[in-house]
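Allow me, if you will, to draw on your knowledge of protein folds for a short while. I have a record of one protein: its chain in single-letter code and its fold written as C-alpha coordinates. The full record is reproduced below for your convenience:
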Amino acid sequence: MQLTPNTLKINPQQTTQQITTFIKDYTKKTKKNGITLGISGGIDSATTTTLITKAIGQNKTHAIYMPEKQTQNKTDHNHIKQLQKQQGFNLTTINITKTLTTLHKIIPTHNPKNKLANGNLKARTRMTILYYHANNQNLLVATSSDKSETMIGYYTKWGDNAADIAPIQDLYKTQVQQLATHLGIPKAIINKPPTPNLWPNQTAQQEIGLNYQTLDLILYALEHFTPTETIAKQLNLPTTTITAIKNRWLQNEHKRKMPLTTKLQYRTINHDFRLPHTTETE
Protein backbone atom coordinates (compact mmCIF):
# COMPACT_ATOMS: atom_id res chain seq x y z
CA MET A 1 0.00 0.00 0.00
CA GLN A 2 1.35 3.40 -1.03
CA LEU A 3 0.22 6.22 1.22
CA THR A 4 -0.10 9.36 -0.89
CA PRO A 5 -2.67 12.21 -1.05
CA ASN A 6 -4.41 10.27 -3.84
CA THR A 7 -4.99 7.34 -1.48
CA LEU A 8 -8.01 9.09 0.01
CA LYS A 9 -9.39 10.55 -3.19
CA ILE A 10 -13.14 10.00 -3.60
CA ASN A 11 -15.68 10.32 -6.36
CA PRO A 12 -17.69 13.22 -4.87
CA GLN A 13 -20.64 12.86 -7.23
CA GLN A 14 -21.07 9.18 -6.44
CA THR A 15 -20.50 9.78 -2.72
CA THR A 16 -23.16 12.49 -2.69
CA GLN A 17 -25.63 10.15 -4.36
CA GLN A 18 -24.92 7.35 -1.89
CA ILE A 19 -25.26 9.54 1.20
CA THR A 20 -28.39 11.41 0.08
CA THR A 21 -30.07 8.13 -0.86
CA PHE A 22 -29.19 6.74 2.59
CA ILE A 23 -30.60 9.83 4.34
CA LYS A 24 -33.81 9.86 2.30
CA ASP A 25 -34.38 6.12 2.71
CA TYR A 26 -33.76 6.09 6.47
CA THR A 27 -36.00 9.10 7.09
CA LYS A 28 -38.81 7.44 5.12
CA LYS A 29 -38.45 4.06 6.86
CA THR A 30 -38.52 5.61 10.33
CA LYS A 31 -41.61 7.64 9.37
CA LYS A 32 -40.07 10.89 10.61
CA ASN A 33 -41.02 14.37 9.46
CA GLY A 34 -37.44 15.40 8.86
CA ILE A 35 -34.02 15.76 10.49
CA THR A 36 -32.55 18.18 13.01
CA LEU A 37 -28.87 18.77 13.72
CA GLY A 38 -26.57 21.23 15.39
CA ILE A 39 -24.76 23.63 13.08
CA SER A 40 -21.55 25.35 14.12
CA GLY A 41 -20.18 27.12 11.08
CA GLY A 42 -17.55 24.41 10.53
CA ILE A 43 -17.02 22.17 7.53
CA ASP A 44 -18.53 18.99 9.01
CA SER A 45 -21.86 20.49 10.04
CA ALA A 46 -22.02 22.56 6.83
CA THR A 47 -21.48 19.46 4.69
CA THR A 48 -23.95 17.36 6.68
CA THR A 49 -26.63 20.06 6.59
CA THR A 50 -26.18 20.48 2.85
CA LEU A 51 -26.46 16.73 2.22
CA ILE A 52 -29.59 16.47 4.36
CA THR A 53 -31.17 19.41 2.55
CA LYS A 54 -30.44 17.82 -0.82
CA ALA A 55 -31.82 14.49 0.37
CA ILE A 56 -35.12 15.46 2.01
CA GLY A 57 -35.64 19.12 1.14
CA GLN A 58 -35.35 22.53 2.78
CA ASN A 59 -38.56 22.35 4.83
CA LYS A 60 -37.59 19.05 6.44
CA THR A 61 -34.08 20.12 7.43
CA HIS A 62 -33.90 21.85 10.82
CA ALA A 63 -30.48 23.20 11.77
CA ILE A 64 -29.99 24.69 15.24
CA TYR A 65 -27.13 27.03 16.08
CA MET A 66 -26.36 27.00 19.81
CA PRO A 67 -23.70 29.59 20.69
CA GLU A 68 -22.59 30.51 24.20
CA LYS A 69 -20.61 33.47 25.49
CA GLN A 70 -17.19 31.82 25.78
CA THR A 71 -16.81 30.66 22.19
CA GLN A 72 -19.38 32.51 20.09
CA ASN A 73 -17.99 34.70 17.33
CA LYS A 74 -19.24 36.70 14.38
CA THR A 75 -17.31 34.63 11.84
CA ASP A 76 -19.17 31.41 12.64
CA HIS A 77 -22.50 33.24 12.74
CA ASN A 78 -21.85 34.85 9.35
CA HIS A 79 -20.79 31.56 7.81
CA ILE A 80 -23.96 29.86 9.03
CA LYS A 81 -26.14 32.63 7.63
CA GLN A 82 -24.25 32.45 4.34
CA LEU A 83 -24.83 28.70 4.09
CA GLN A 84 -28.49 29.04 5.08
CA LYS A 85 -29.02 31.64 2.36
CA GLN A 86 -27.35 29.32 -0.15
CA GLN A 87 -29.18 26.10 0.81
CA GLY A 88 -32.49 27.38 2.24
CA PHE A 89 -32.82 25.03 5.23
CA ASN A 90 -34.65 26.00 8.44
CA LEU A 91 -32.37 27.71 10.94
CA THR A 92 -32.97 28.43 14.62
CA THR A 93 -30.52 30.14 16.99
CA ILE A 94 -30.62 29.27 20.70
CA ASN A 95 -28.09 30.93 22.99
CA ILE A 96 -27.29 28.39 25.71
CA THR A 97 -25.31 30.72 28.00
CA LYS A 98 -28.10 31.04 30.60
CA THR A 99 -28.75 27.30 30.54
CA LEU A 100 -25.09 26.54 31.22
CA THR A 101 -24.93 29.16 33.97
CA THR A 102 -27.94 27.56 35.67
CA LEU A 103 -26.40 24.10 35.39
CA HIS A 104 -23.16 25.37 36.90
CA LYS A 105 -25.11 26.74 39.86
CA ILE A 106 -27.14 23.61 40.56
CA ILE A 107 -24.37 21.02 40.11
CA PRO A 108 -22.81 20.66 43.59
CA THR A 109 -19.44 19.55 42.24
CA HIS A 110 -19.14 22.23 39.56
CA ASN A 111 -15.51 23.21 39.06
CA PRO A 112 -14.96 26.26 36.81
CA LYS A 113 -11.32 25.23 36.35
CA ASN A 114 -12.15 21.82 34.88
CA LYS A 115 -12.05 22.74 31.20
CA LEU A 116 -12.85 19.27 29.92
CA ALA A 117 -15.87 18.68 32.18
CA ASN A 118 -17.34 22.09 31.37
CA GLY A 119 -16.67 21.65 27.65
CA ASN A 120 -18.39 18.28 27.61
CA LEU A 121 -21.34 19.78 29.48
CA LYS A 122 -21.79 22.21 26.58
CA ALA A 123 -21.83 19.39 24.04
CA ARG A 124 -24.33 17.36 26.05
CA THR A 125 -26.55 20.40 26.62
CA ARG A 126 -26.68 21.00 22.88
CA MET A 127 -27.64 17.38 22.24
CA THR A 128 -30.36 17.58 24.92
CA ILE A 129 -31.89 20.54 23.08
CA LEU A 130 -31.68 18.74 19.74
CA TYR A 131 -33.45 15.68 21.10
CA TYR A 132 -36.17 17.77 22.71
CA HIS A 133 -36.76 19.49 19.39
CA ALA A 134 -36.72 16.12 17.59
CA ASN A 135 -39.23 14.57 20.00
CA ASN A 136 -41.47 17.61 19.72
CA GLN A 137 -41.49 17.65 15.92
CA ASN A 138 -41.08 13.91 15.16
CA LEU A 139 -37.59 14.32 13.70
CA LEU A 140 -34.41 12.31 13.51
CA VAL A 141 -31.26 13.76 15.10
CA ALA A 142 -28.15 13.80 12.93
CA THR A 143 -24.53 14.07 14.00
CA SER A 144 -21.87 15.75 11.86
CA SER A 145 -18.98 13.63 13.13
CA ASP A 146 -16.51 12.49 10.46
CA LYS A 147 -14.46 9.28 10.40
CA SER A 148 -11.18 10.87 11.49
CA GLU A 149 -12.57 12.26 14.73
CA THR A 150 -14.80 9.26 15.39
CA MET A 151 -11.91 6.81 15.08
CA ILE A 152 -9.71 8.65 17.59
CA GLY A 153 -12.60 9.52 19.91
CA TYR A 154 -12.27 13.27 19.39
CA TYR A 155 -15.80 14.10 20.52
CA THR A 156 -17.93 14.11 23.65
CA LYS A 157 -19.41 10.77 24.66
CA TRP A 158 -23.22 11.10 24.61
CA GLY A 159 -22.68 14.63 23.29
CA ASP A 160 -21.98 15.73 19.73
CA ASN A 161 -21.81 12.11 18.51
CA ALA A 162 -25.08 11.03 20.14
CA ALA A 163 -27.60 10.81 17.32
CA ASP A 164 -29.89 8.65 15.22
CA ILE A 165 -28.06 9.07 11.93
CA ALA A 166 -24.46 9.92 11.00
CA PRO A 167 -24.32 10.82 7.29
CA ILE A 168 -20.58 11.55 6.94
CA GLN A 169 -19.16 9.25 9.62
CA ASP A 170 -17.50 6.99 7.04
CA LEU A 171 -15.60 9.88 5.43
CA TYR A 172 -12.21 11.03 6.68
CA LYS A 173 -11.85 14.79 7.22
CA THR A 174 -9.85 15.26 4.01
CA GLN A 175 -12.60 13.40 2.13
CA VAL A 176 -15.21 15.67 3.71
CA GLN A 177 -13.19 18.58 2.34
CA GLN A 178 -13.36 17.08 -1.15
CA LEU A 179 -17.10 16.56 -0.83
CA ALA A 180 -17.66 20.07 0.52
CA THR A 181 -15.85 21.54 -2.48
CA HIS A 182 -18.05 19.50 -4.83
CA LEU A 183 -21.20 20.66 -3.01
CA GLY A 184 -20.21 24.30 -3.42
CA ILE A 185 -19.85 25.05 0.27
CA PRO A 186 -18.15 28.45 0.71
CA LYS A 187 -14.35 28.22 0.71
CA ALA A 188 -14.14 30.26 3.89
CA ILE A 189 -15.93 27.43 5.72
CA ILE A 190 -13.85 24.69 4.07
CA ASN A 191 -10.55 26.40 4.87
CA LYS A 192 -11.41 27.35 8.46
CA PRO A 193 -9.42 25.45 11.14
CA PRO A 194 -11.72 22.79 12.66
CA THR A 195 -12.69 23.24 16.31
CA PRO A 196 -15.24 21.62 18.66
CA ASN A 197 -15.84 25.09 20.18
CA LEU A 198 -15.86 23.79 23.75
CA TRP A 199 -13.52 26.48 25.09
CA PRO A 200 -11.85 29.63 23.71
CA ASN A 201 -9.10 29.29 21.08
CA GLN A 202 -9.53 25.53 20.82
CA THR A 203 -8.34 23.96 17.55
CA ALA A 204 -8.49 20.30 16.57
CA GLN A 205 -5.06 20.16 14.96
CA GLN A 206 -3.36 21.57 18.04
CA GLU A 207 -5.03 19.03 20.32
CA ILE A 208 -4.54 16.06 18.02
CA GLY A 209 -0.94 17.02 17.29
CA LEU A 210 -1.11 16.28 13.55
CA ASN A 211 -2.67 17.87 10.50
CA TYR A 212 -5.61 15.98 9.03
CA GLN A 213 -3.75 15.07 5.83
CA THR A 214 -1.28 13.04 7.90
CA LEU A 215 -3.78 11.77 10.46
CA ASP A 216 -6.13 10.47 7.79
CA LEU A 217 -3.39 8.49 6.03
CA ILE A 218 -2.35 6.94 9.35
CA LEU A 219 -5.93 5.97 10.18
CA TYR A 220 -6.55 4.63 6.68
CA ALA A 221 -3.44 2.48 6.92
CA LEU A 222 -4.40 1.21 10.39
CA GLU A 223 -7.88 0.44 9.10
CA HIS A 224 -6.24 -1.76 6.45
CA PHE A 225 -4.02 -3.61 8.97
CA THR A 226 -0.79 -1.98 7.79
CA PRO A 227 2.13 -2.57 10.20
CA THR A 228 3.22 0.41 12.31
CA GLU A 229 6.76 0.34 10.91
CA THR A 230 5.50 0.43 7.33
CA ILE A 231 3.26 3.44 8.01
CA ALA A 232 6.06 5.30 9.79
CA LYS A 233 8.50 4.66 6.94
CA GLN A 234 6.12 5.75 4.19
CA LEU A 235 5.04 8.93 5.99
CA ASN A 236 8.52 9.69 7.36
CA LEU A 237 7.26 9.74 10.94
CA PRO A 238 8.53 8.21 14.19
CA THR A 239 6.94 4.87 15.04
CA THR A 240 5.95 6.41 18.36
CA THR A 241 3.62 8.80 16.50
CA ILE A 242 1.86 5.93 14.74
CA THR A 243 1.64 3.95 17.96
CA ALA A 244 0.13 6.92 19.79
CA ILE A 245 -2.62 7.28 17.18
CA LYS A 246 -3.26 3.53 17.20
CA ASN A 247 -3.52 3.50 20.99
CA ARG A 248 -5.89 6.46 20.90
CA TRP A 249 -8.07 4.63 18.40
CA LEU A 250 -8.21 1.48 20.54
CA GLN A 251 -8.57 3.21 23.91
CA ASN A 252 -11.61 5.18 22.72
CA GLU A 253 -13.57 2.18 21.50
CA HIS A 254 -15.88 2.60 24.51
CA LYS A 255 -17.17 5.81 22.93
CA ARG A 256 -18.32 3.91 19.86
CA LYS A 257 -20.14 1.14 21.73
CA MET A 258 -23.29 0.85 23.77
CA PRO A 259 -22.69 0.33 27.52
CA LEU A 260 -21.14 -2.97 28.56
CA THR A 261 -23.18 -5.41 30.57
CA THR A 262 -22.63 -8.74 32.30
CA LYS A 263 -23.66 -11.59 30.02
CA LEU A 264 -26.23 -13.62 31.98
CA GLN A 265 -28.88 -14.73 29.51
CA TYR A 266 -29.07 -16.79 26.32
CA ARG A 267 -29.14 -13.73 24.04
CA THR A 268 -27.70 -10.47 25.36
CA ILE A 269 -28.53 -7.03 23.93
CA ASN A 270 -25.74 -5.63 21.73
CA HIS A 271 -23.87 -8.94 21.82
CA ASP A 272 -26.15 -11.56 20.32
CA PHE A 273 -29.04 -9.70 18.71
CA ARG A 274 -28.53 -8.75 15.06
CA LEU A 275 -31.66 -6.77 14.31
CA PRO A 276 -32.25 -4.20 11.56
CA HIS A 277 -32.44 -0.52 12.49
CA THR A 278 -35.83 -0.23 10.82
CA THR A 279 -38.55 -2.52 9.48
CA GLU A 280 -41.27 -1.92 6.95
CA THR A 281 -43.92 -2.35 9.68
CA GLU A 282 -42.64 0.56 11.83
Notes: Residues 5-205 form a domain with the Rossmann fold fold (CATH 3.40.50.620). The chain has a mean pLDDT of 93. Residues 115-137 form the longest helix (23 residues). Strands lie at 34-38, 61-65, 90-93, 139-142.
